[in-house]
Write a structure and sequence with these properties.
The protein is of the alpha+beta class. The protein contains 12 helices and 19 strands. It has a domain of 215 residues: FAD/NAD(P)-binding domain (3-Layer(bba) Sandwich), CATH 3.50.50.60. It is globular and about 65 Å long.
Length: 389
């Protein structure tokens, strides 16, 4: 359930395996919200295996480098993903909105006759020894019942499936609120040496600049002592952007929204015939762009094992899905995202200087950079998952 990047990826994989499915999505249309926009190399490799990477790449922006930067001086540590070119067919990050992936996936699924029910909200989930049952309701209020052998909850951080089965979803919520703003302002013409992905320390704070085709996504934070309400005023957003790159003509902000950051994960990805994937199972800081990618990795792992079970394999294979993905999400995704966030939230100038020096030394050494990028690009986590039995 859920027509986001994870649910749609699973649906496509099941469809390609000749496995009947019904995908339920509460919204009547695909979401166009400002969400994930970074695809890591191994994710592109996976999508390439099912013919999705090429059309996605055509809609995005290749980013062979990313950087951590001092705003005042322009000093930076630049990481070049060519260092992991021997481990991936796509040695770059792709900057592209997740909504574009969802559209490609949905079009492929529908073109092949897939059963997708938009505007179908789930009310209840239940299971017994022989199958699962979903009670849902369409936008017209008409109730529907769906039954099957398994149900996959890929319905996001507020997952109805997770709550219906009482999965524990423990963790914490970070204190700060992030304000995501988009603009066509050409930051690359004002800040020398920018990559397409930039995490930046400024005096007393931080921001990030992520470039998409024809657009920059800016992650901003309220000033010290500033309320969220005040920080969301156009004047406040303009002031923050002017501090990044002054412009008499302004920055023409097209869209903005606030969001809180959480770090939570379930103990197990499986409860009987119910399985979780993506944000339904784990949520993390977006710093490093690992959440959506981890969810897509869940999708490929789960679809492969579910296909085997439906073909006659022991269903304990689904426990292996949980054993392989849960610790990787916990230790490789949540903790790495937490470290990324902690690094950029550092306010002490001395510690910032020390950290920048450390990162510059890593980036300058080919072997160290390769090891660092294998981890940060999620290749190492996937390799570790394969060793778990």
């Amino acid at each position: 359930m859920g027509a986001g990047p994870v649910g749609l990826t699973i649906a496509l994989l099941l469809q390609r395996g000749g496995i009947p499915f019904t995908l339920l999505e509460a919204s009547s249309t695909l979401s166009e919200d400002l969400r994930a926009s970074t695809f890591h190399p191994p994710t592109l490799d996976m999508l390439d295996s099912v013919g999705i990477a090429t059309p996605l790449i055509e809609l995005g922006l290749k980013s062979p480098t990313w950087q951590v930067r001092m705003h005042r001086t322009g000093e930076r540590a630049v990481f070049d993903l060519s260092a992991v070119g021997d481990a991936t067919g796509h040695p770059y990050r792709l900057q592209c909105e997740q909504s574009k992936l969802c559209r490609i996936l949905l079009d492929r699924i529908l073109a092949a006759g897939g059963d997708v029910r938009m505007g179908m909200r789930v009310d209840a989930v239940s299971q017994n020894s022989s199958g699962v049952r979903i009670d849902a309701r369409g936008e017209d209020g008409e109730a529907s019942e769906f039954t099957g052998r398994y149900v996959i909850g890929a319905d996001g951080a507020r997952s109805i499936v997770r709550r219906a089965l009482d999965f524990r979803f423990e963790g914490s919520t970070y204190p700060e609120t992030t304000i995501l703003a988009t603009t066509q302002f050409p930051f690359e013409e004002h800040l020398p040496g920018l990559s397409n992905v930039n995490y930046v320390w400024k005096d007393g704070g931080t921001f990030s600049l992520l470039r998409l085709p024809g657009l920059w996504r800016c992650s901003l934070y309220p000033d010290e002592g500033e309320t969220i309400e005040d920080a969301l005023n156009p004047e406040s957003i303009d002031r923050k952007l002017q501090a990044i790159a002054p412009s008499p003509a302004g920055h023409d902000v097209q869209e903005f929204r606030p969001y809180r950051i959480h770090m939570r994960i379930v103990d197990e990805y499986r409860s009987g015939r119910v399985l979780l994937a993506g944000d339904a199972a784990h949520v993390n800081s977006p710093s490093g762009g690992m959440g959506m990618n981890g969810g897509i990795h869940d999708a490929f792992n789960l679809a492969d094992k579910l296909a085997a079970v439906l073909a006659g394999a022991d269903d304990r294979l689904l426990d292996l899905y949980s054993r392989q993905r849960q610790p990787i999400a916990k230790e490789q995704i949540l903790q790495q995202a937490h470290r990324n966030r902690t690094r950029m939230q550092e306010r002490d100038p001395v510690k910032r200087r020390e950290e920048l020096g450390r990162l510059q030394a890593i980036a300058a050494d080919r072997d160290q950079a390769r090891a660092f990028l294998l981890k940060s690009s999620m290749i190492e986590g996937l390799r570790l998952a394969e060793t778990i039995q």
